[in-house]
Amino acid sequence: MKNVLAKTCIFTLLFQFLIMISSAEAQDSKYLSNPEVLKIMEESKTLYRIGSTDELTDPSIDDYGKKMFPKLTNHLEFPKVVHGSDSSLYLKSFDFDSIALATLAEGEPFFKIGNYDAAIKYYEKAYELSDSLYVAYLHAGDCHLMNKKFKKALKLYEKAKKINPFDYRPHFYCGTANYRMGNHEHALENYIHAISLKPRHFSILLTLQAKADELGIDVNTETFEPKSYVEKTDSSVNIFIPSENGSIWLAYAAAKAIYLGEDDKRLDLFGIQGIGWNSEMETQAIIGLMDLYLGLVESDKIERIEYLDRLYLITKEGYLDEFIFYEIASKMNPDIVLQLPREIRDSIKEYVKKYVIVKRKG
Question: Which residues contact 331 (CB under 8 A, 6 or more apart)?
Fold first, then answer.
């Protein structure tokens, strides 16, 4: 690594910096303060190195977020939530009757050419053969929607929603049917429920942006993208921060670094033995980021940054867990929300209402 500051001198400078630049606000005592994080690094047997992201030469490291939040599981097209014997929730693919599914497929060529009256006959036959084939209700509803029979469409979408409330599509389709009937409040509620089940879904957000003025909402599509990168090698843990405004991301990266570097302390600090992503570690990193950012702002070292102000507000109002599930964990597991208890899913929905799909005042 080029221009890497040696451990013996860098921690003295960092201690002075982090003690001097500290937010006046109280920090949750459950988590380490930034000086405490640096103290662990200073006293550790692990070698920590700090350099600039300009030094990264690996062509695959072009998006720190994708490296730090890698996709671990694929999205289930038709998810079914199963309750385990220990009260846990896990997912499996929804089982469909093969004959009913084949009947549904026969209607697709007619739908594609706009012959909705012909297509719906196959879709209706499909759900008559298997009442649990909720996608047949969605397809039949689409035929009514295209024929501007919105009430009939909504009735079928609602039926699909009752069969599988964990698939975001019935909620989204109910939103569209209500919107076409002018029921904007019901439309918005269904759209919000859909995006809560499928965080950051591009098509849902795009639809809401297009309807924003009519629905009276503002849509926040900004995602959390860390500006630092941390890696563990055989000889050291390496921290890379931007050369411009890099100090903002130092605390965030330092928390990630001790998570990787402190094998004997990881269980006590973060509640996990392995080095896979962990929500407690992410919380520690973001709390450190917020504390350092506010300290820099309060001491007039930097100008305010809008997306960090938003993250500070989310943290202050007690929605950091929901932020982490919606914005970060969903990048690694697209169906993460479906595996959470009802009360957490409900709080994520409240998070979406407050910070993602926000009703305009007045």
Answer: 65, 69, 71, 200
Residue 321 reports pLDDT greater than 80: yes
The token duo for 260 is: 């990787």
DSSP string computed for 211-222: THHHHTEEE---
Q: Report whether 205 contacts 217 (CB < 8 A).
A: no
Report the pLDDT value the prediction gives residue 57, as an integer from 0 to 100.
Answer: 67
Length of the chain: 362
CA–CA separation, 10 and 52 (whole Å): 13
Name beta bridge partners: 357: 219
Higher pLDDT, 223 or 129: 129
Find out whether 208 and 217 touch, Cβ atoms under 8 Å.
yes
pLDDT of 54 > 90? The answer is: no
pTM: 0.89
Give the Cα separation of 79 and 27 in Å (integer). 39
pLDDT exceeds 70 at position 52: yes
Contact 340, 87 (CB under 8 A): no
Q: What are phi and psi of 57, to 5 degrees?
A: -110, -10
